[in-house]
Amino acid sequence: MKLVLAYVNPYRVDDIVEAVKNTEISGLTVVEAQGFGRQAGHEEIYRGAEYEVDLVQKVRIEILIDDIMAPETMSMIEEVVHTGSIGDGKVLILDVEDVVRIRTGERGEDAV
Amino acid sequence: MDSGATAWILTSSALVLLMTPGLALFYGGMVRGKNILAMLLKNYIAMGVITIVWTLIGGSLAFGHLIGGSALEISGTTILGNLDYFGLRGIDLPGTESIVGGIPNSAFMMFQLMFAIITPALIVGAVAERMKFGAWTLFIILWSIVVYVPLATAVWGGGYIGENLGALDFAGGLVVHINAGVAALVLAIMIGPRLGYGTSAIRPHSLPLTLIGAGLLWFGWFGFNAGSALAADQAAADAFMATQVAAGTAATVWLLVEKMVQGHATTLGFASGAVAGLVAITPAAGFVDPLGALVIGAVAGVVCFYALRLKAIFKFDDSLDVVAVHLVGGIIGSVLLGVLAVGDVAGGSQLVKQVIAVVITIVWTGALTAILALLIDKCIGLRVTEEEERQGLDISLHNEQGYLLTE
Predict the structure, then answer these.
(1) The pTM is what?
(2) Of the partner residues B202, B262, B312, the one whose CB lies closest to the CB of residue A45
(3) A45 and B309 in contact by Cβ < 8 A?
(4) Which class for B176: exposed (0-12), middle (13-18), buried (19 or more C-beta within 10 A)?
(5) Domain count, chain B
């Protein structure tokens, strides 16, 4: 089992959700996040005062998935989100040791 | 008894009261989310303690001599009222003078109370996110007695500025806005900048709140300005119109300047411009025609926008720009009134009188505010600890949170 994590711009979430609905993936979780990477921060102006804002609003999308589908899920997100501009984000895959579906008590692959 | 005038003054009093919650939201949106409740409460507390102060002694000290008894005078000049109406008792009994013919003295006293409430509340923008709640409460109680009340007497109670000098202040350019603006400047300098000021991004956390607050202020300002005619008459209607014209013009002009200088028209810019226009028209509302109001609004929109730069130049953290909006806006209106007034009060020497009145107000408030703040700082301290400031005043001072993310 794998956990696919994608750190992307908040306004890409709808596109990803749309794409995921057209696959066998059964669900995803969206977490609001802030951070900085190569994109770094940006400048905002309030009443004439300029503020360097270091942390950019991002979302982290979490998709729990079986081993076989993990690479194609990663590619799917990459395709949907890619613009070629700085700040597009990252997708990564983590190993998952165990899973339990709390309602039924199913474990492992059955719970994914 | 003039029932029309009385009804309007009571209505106006309620309108002016609503400005303080409006101000609380206007300011509250501009602080960080961890300080929203502390900011709201520092405004609302004025509705509590100033009501007590005004009822017990403030109202009588400011205007008691206009009801009965004698004023405190120095060589024939009225300095202060009296304490004959301690607790505002008996202000409408037979044998008392009517301060404004046709309306009960209690209506006048309540109308004036609402001004006494919002004036110290205006100051809090300068010390946002770092002042102790107890020190603030003590400060506004003392400030309203020592600074506000004598100035109200001087301008509106037959004292030096209004009577002897002959300067004009229709609804509080001197008494409210320059007064609060100078106090804000003094306090901001004395309390020092917020932690991280100038280095980290201390941004407004909720501009929607600020816009709601600006809307409530604008609405309440009709009571503030048109109510200051103290009658339901032509002057009230003129002041109402001037208020709307100046506010709309200043908001529009501010946006234009902002767009040209910074590239974006912003919601905070619109709200700031509207308030700057409302401030600037306050002293002049009953004295100028609509085109005069338009000029005052336009000047306020440009000058107050550029006045935002003062705090960077002189390096003080007037956190929510009370100086740029209220001090500068108040000066614009009080001085331009000397040029733009129409009718009986138009005339060459009025400009000079207005400038003198502005200078007197600045010196009076500046000196006394500094002494008061110094005393309070020595006794109990003005500022929260570093740890409290980092944690946010909502939790550290009030043990509450403005926003809970779950449930």
Answers:
(1) 0.92
(2) B262
(3) no
(4) buried
(5) 1
